Amino acid sequence: MPSFYQRKLPETCVAFASREGKKIFKSALENNGLKSFYNLIEQHHTQTEPAFCGISTLVMVLNALAVDPGQHWKGPWRWYSESMLNCCVDSEDIKKAGITLRDFQCLALCQGLSVDLQYCDDTSSLQAFRLAVERTCLESPISNDDHDECETEGKYLEVMVVSYSRAVLKQTGSGHFSPLAAYDKASDSVLILDTARFKYGAHWTKVPLIYDAMKPLDSDTGKSRGYALISFVSKRENNAEPALSTHPTSIIFRSKMKQKGRRQLYKQYIASLRDKKYKEDDIPYAEVRAFWYEGGGSGPSLIWDIIEPVRINSEEENQMLQQMRKLLVDLKDASNANMYATKKDQIDEERFKPSNHVSLEETHFFIYLATLSEKRRYEFVMSVKSDGTSDVVRKQIIKEADMIASAIEVSDQLTSI
After folding, report:
1. Which residue out of 68, 106, 176, 402 is catalytically annotated?
2. Which domains can be identified in the chain, with CATH numbers?
3. CA-CA distance, 352 to 346, in Å (whole number)?
4. pLDDT for 159-184, tens place per residue?
């Protein structure tokens, strides 16, 4: 096979490290157009797979916004990597075909980010896009009166990510994701921090051109591409410091979108129950279980079609899983869920319960927790008595259910699969 080491940028782009690129950067600096630059450039990295531009861009944004993933990356360190983005889309599918803008939004929402999504169709305009660029890249001038800088800096940052066609920029390739890190008003240019650095380095391009590059239809969705304004505000408890975990990040599940249709059926089933029977009350575990054993689920083990259990390899995560199992038993007792177990279920339990990942029945109960409202889910898990169970374990169970709830919620919005 032929091999390549980077490519020459076309005339539509100006290399960041070139003489001209440095002039544009100087102008952007003088005109206060680097609001997003400093946080993003600290996290600029190269995507680990050819089709990972979308999730690698999201990883860069998450780390730039100082979002704590709430799980270990290596050793004691908590840090985002591509493998942690386990909601909405199966990672093996991403390796083959990448993600769409809607998939990107879903993945960002699952990590607790706020996402303002705009397609570059008839509802958009170049003027609106330029205003959005200014909003994310222009900052107030720094003055000598800016004392207490450490108390205000970094509390709120908004980052723009663009989904565009490389062909319009006369680059090789098709659809791509990148963050916009800077804006030079004098030349009307934006800085693209390309995560495919094995192909193209960071470069400047004109605002009208990158806007035009978002107009072509994505063949996977039939829609135009577009841009997303992303921000993050930590949830605080009792006005204290942000909690260790502020968003769903699973250590025991992966989401599988190949069975999007089944996920939609379940969402419709739950919505129907709320409309007809349980407008104010929690949906009982028996109703949730009935879907998988008697209704549209067509068999309890088919839950594996939409959620894939993860094999726990580290001793630390295995200990967490065992503690979670103990709490799940107490939660099931409190919700009268155990009364529905049958001899056949026990056989299925043995069949689907390897020692190092969650069982079939445990997964059904997580699905049940995901049907509760966010407030009710938190109250229930945190209040049930379970000797020796820490709040860390309780919050991890809440996170697992949150992840499932997020994936089900957006199941009928995704169009890529």
Report:
1. 176
2. 14-141+149-231 (3.90.70.30), 253-409 (no CATH)
3. 10
4. 999 999 999 999 999 999 999 999 99
